[in-house]
Structures are given as C-alpha cells and as structure tokens.
Amino acid sequence: MLRVWNQFDECIYQVYILGIYTWYMSVKNALLALITSGPAHGYQLKAEFDEATSSAWPLNFGQVYTSLQRLQDNGFLQSHGEDTDGRILYSITTEGQDHVQEWLESPAPQPLASRDELSMKVLIAVATNVIDPSIVLSAQRTAAMSTLQSITELKRDVDDKDLAWRLHLDRASLIAEAEIRWLDLVEERLRLSKGSGLTAKRSALTDEPASGEAVVASLSSPTSDQDSSMNQGS
Predict the structure, then answer these.
(1) pTM above 0.90, yes or no
(2) What is the full DSSP assignment across 119-180?
(3) What is the separation of C-alpha 27 from the centre of its chain, rounded to a whole number of angstroms?
(4) Cα(first)–Cα(last) distance of the chain, in Å?
(5) Is the pLDDT of residue 82 over 50?
(6) How many Cα neighbours within 13 Å face the side chain of 102?
(7) Distance separating alpha carbons of residues 40 and 35, to the nearest angstrom
(8) In terms of Cα–Cα distance, which of 48, 171, 164, 162 is closest to 108?
(9) Does the pLDDT at position 66 exceed 70?
(10) Which residues neighbour 102 within 8 Å (Cβ) at sequence distance 6 or greater?
(11) Which helix H or strand E contains 8, and what residues bound it?
C-alpha cells in the first residue's frame, strides 16, 4: 500500500511540473501561431495575445520577448527587419508552421490526479472525524453555487462579440457544476460507507467507542491490558 501511495504522490508531482511546463509551452506556441498571420513585433504580439484570450492569462513583455528569443533559437522564427519605430519584426519559418500545426492538432494533456485543498479537506474530515464531513461538503457546495450564480450573472452581460470571454465563462460554469456534482457523489458514497474512517479503525483496535475523545485517550494513556501487565510484573 505504501508503494502505491508513493507512486500516486510521484504522479501528482509530475502533474504539477507538467502543468507549469505546459503553460509555458502554450504561451510560446500561442505567440508563434499569432505570427502566422504575418511579421510582427513583441508589442504587437502582446496586444494580439491579450485580445485573443480576453486577457485571461497575465503576460508581461519580458515573457513575450524571452519566448520570441527561444522560438528563434529553436528555428521556428526568424528576424524580419525592423518597423519604422526600430522594433524587431519576426516571421515564422517552415519549421515553425509545422510546429504550430502539430500543437493545435494534438490533444492537450489531461492529468488524472491533482493536489488541491478541497480534496484534502474532504479526505481528512472523513479520516479523522474532527468535524462531520457533511459540514465541509455543505460549505463547499454553498461556495460553488455562489460562484456558479456569479458566473451566470456575468454571462448575461457579455457582449455577443466577445467570444473569448464567453468561452471562458462557459468553461468556468461547467467546472463549478462539475464540483457540485462531485460533492453530491462524495455525500452519497459516505452514506453508503459508514464507519470506515481513521477514528473507527483506531476504536476497533482499542475496543472503545468511535469518538475523537476516545481516540486521543487511547493514544495518550496505557490500556487496561497494559496496566494489568505492569501490575503483574511488579
């Protein structure tokens, strides 16, 4: 079992690293795709990136020019002279066009595991019985429903021409709905599997009621069997 959890933990770590790497590569590839429309300089690409993504990704000029330099080093871009203000123009190479095509046609990686606070709260509440897990589920469900309501209100005011922002809100809405469905599923599974938490397991070992106080007492003081053994020894 320990090996299984170690493998799971390693998987989560790899997903975290993959997420950072994927975001970085996505930004570079997005800038490269924008240049397929024609030669452009960094300032122009920053503005076009913000417009295309409805400014959903924070991107500063340093990241833009660093990405352009890397793309040029990889042979995906080449210098195309300067504009009237002396800014370097970049154009895409044949290798760059092939790379963009492959990136857009390939499915984005979908990690199977994640390390998030909600999962940890639910699992620890179930394992320890510090509080009733239903309290955690109820609080999170209320928050998720509030978020969903806010998104719904934002969607009413979206300009029909702002397709990028509408798509962002659609995705956020579906994620909130999925979280609510997951919370409902957790509640149902807990209903079907009573008494499987850490407190119940420890109580079974000590023949004591399944309560937090009983567990603390059993861990902090000798059991009656231990007392008897000590008395016999003396």
Answers:
(1) no
(2) HHHHHHHHHH-SS-HHHHHHHHHHHHHHHHHHHHHHHHT--TT-HHHHHHHHHHHHHHHHHH
(3) 18
(4) 41
(5) yes
(6) 7
(7) 6
(8) 171
(9) yes
(10) none
(11) helix 2-35
